[in-house]
Automatic annotation (TrEMBL):
Keywords per UniProt: DNA-binding, Transcription, Transcription regulation
A Pfam short name: Autoind_bind
Keyword presence, Transcription: yes
Listed Gene3D superfamilies: Transcription factor LuxR-like, autoinducer-binding domain
Every Transcription factor LuxR-like autoinducer-binding domain range: 111-256
An example Gene Ontology molecular-function term: DNA binding
Region (Disordered): 429-456
Organism domain of life: Bacteria
Name of this protein: DNA-binding CsgD family transcriptional regulator
Length: 456
């Protein structure tokens, strides 16, 4: 993920614990507000709101904050501490082909980028407000947690959480049980609503959300589902639902891809935490296919002794299993083998003068020849056009670069040193603090505000 380590503050307010987290993301500062009950009564579940901490969102967010006097000073300090002044603002994403825009969601490096892309898509398809609710359920169907990706009108999501409408929301209840879209008129005439449903309707209309579509997204057998809420400021009686109905397939694809993004992130994080290497996964996949250790050792060109005495023991230690068969079963259940078996081809930028582009963080490039310290993988781009845009952003001459094709796991946003070497890219040493400066001092730190002339 692109985001750096978060700034965190935990507040105990009455019967509630509020945890605030802020960190710099790909598209700006990302703010999380998690609320949970101290009493842990039945029906009380943790809810996390996620938003881009720009001025408009923060003003709206604080208007809906139930503990404004306590939260405001802490939140302001966290956001200020998390900001990185060198971030390059890429602006709002431009939407041409909606299917291509939805496909590119998979390459969002974190939720800050995801929010901007989500809002750009819904705004070009008949809605001006949107948020995405990711819900975890217990085996009995009870809600366990919610994560709300707030695209706009963040005061509304604050009220939604403060009043615990998620517990009685008819849209969310429908989404938990169905794959079909649910529209604002599906709850009946506004005049006939009562209780929390009536209150939700009044608040929605007050904030200019007259017509709604809620699009569910599910994965087979999973206890997690998503619900994309999108609304415009026209009432159903004013044909406000018509553009939402007309574009329902776009919203369906968008909701599904948002859920897929979270699933990929979860698997990739679990795989990283496990410590399993590419070689480990190759071995476990072979075990799953019924291969014996002797044939695996031969096919991978390693000694049987090393495989049995070193690699298999290491795999069992990482997965806390006793046999390699148990390890293969555990890896399969956690989805690691699916990750290993599903591959994609991406692109890595390589320059003969500067080496491999390992990272572009906040507009600052990190090259393998000059600043590889701590970086044992290289940034992977989905296509040449995206790689070229990055070179434009960091003001590096494109005619000095090659775009090398690399084979990586389908969830990967980076390529390991081994992946790069397999593609013919020279290895680098991530323990090197500085590889030395090139003759013309290009791609190294210069005087602040005065980049080298030939860097453009």
């Amino acid at each position: 993920m692109f985001s750096n380590d978060p700034q965190i503050a935990t507040l105990s307010i009455g019967r509630e614990i509020v945890e605030l987290r802020a960190r710099q993301g790909q598209a700006g500062v990302l703010l999380e507000r998690e609320s949970r009950s101290q009493s842990r009564r039945r029906g009380d579940v943790p809810v996390t709101q996620v938003l881009l901490a720009n001025d408009a969102n923060l003003r709206s967010f604080m208007r809906g904050e139930p503990y404004q006097d306590v939260v405001q000073p802490t939140l302001s300090h966290l956001v200020q501490s998390a900001q990185t002044p060198t971030v390059v603002d890429a602006g709002s994403p431009r939407i041409g082909d909606p299917l291509e825009a939805i496909r590119l969601l998979a390459h969002a490096q974190d939720e800050s980028a995801l929010i901007g892309q989500m809002m750009a898509i819904v705004r070009s398809h008949g809605a001006n407000t949107a948020f995405f609710v990711l819900t975890e359920q217990a085996r009995d169907g009870e809600q366990q947690s919610h994560r709300i990706l707030a695209g706009s009108d963040t005061e509304v999501t604050q009220l939604y959480v403060a009043k615990k409408w998620y517990a009685t929301d008819p849209f969310l209840l429908h989404a938990s049980r169905s794959h079909l879209p649910f529209f604002s008129s599906d709850v009946g005439l506004f005049e006939n609503l009562s209780g929390s449903w009536r209150e939700m309707g009044e608040v929605s209309r007050h904030f200019g959300m007259g017509s709604w579509i809620v699009m569910p997204a599910h994965h087979p057998g999973a206890r997690r589902f998503g619900a994309l809420y999108a609304a415009n400021n026209h009432l159903p009686s004013e044909n406000g639902e018509e553009p939402l109905r007309r574009n329902r397939l776009i919203f369906q694809l968008l909701a599904a891809e948002l859920l897929n993004w979270y699933a990929r992130q979860e698997k990739a994080l679990a795989l990283k935490i496990s410590g399993l290497t590419t070689l480990d996964l190759q071995i476990l996949n072979a075990i799953t296919r019924g291969e014996r250790l002797e044939s695996i050792a031969e096919s991978l060109s390693i000694s049987l002794y090393a495989l049995r005495r070193q690699i298999v023991r290491s795999i069992n230690a990482k997965l806390r299993t006793k046999t390699v068969v148990d390890a293969a079963r555990s890896a399969s259940e956690q989805g690691f083998l699916a990750i290993a078996s599903e591959r994609k081809v991406g692109y890595v930028i390589h320059s003969a003068r500067c080496g491999t582009l390992l990272r572009e963080n906040y507009g600052i490039p990190f090259w393998s020849h000059f600043n590889p310290a701590g970086l044992d993988d290289a940034q992977v781009f989905p296509d040449v056009e995206t790689a070229q845009r990055t070179l434009v952003m960091i003001k590096f001459p494109q005619d000095e670069c090659e775009f090398r094709r690399v084979d990586v796991y389908h969830t990967a946003t980076t390529a390991s040193i081994d992946d790069c070497a397999a593609a013919g890219i020279p290895r680098w040493d991530p323990s090197t603090m500085n590889g030395g400066s090139p003759a013309d001092d290009s791609a190294t730190w210069g005087t602040l505000g005065s980049p080298p002339a030939d860097y453009h």
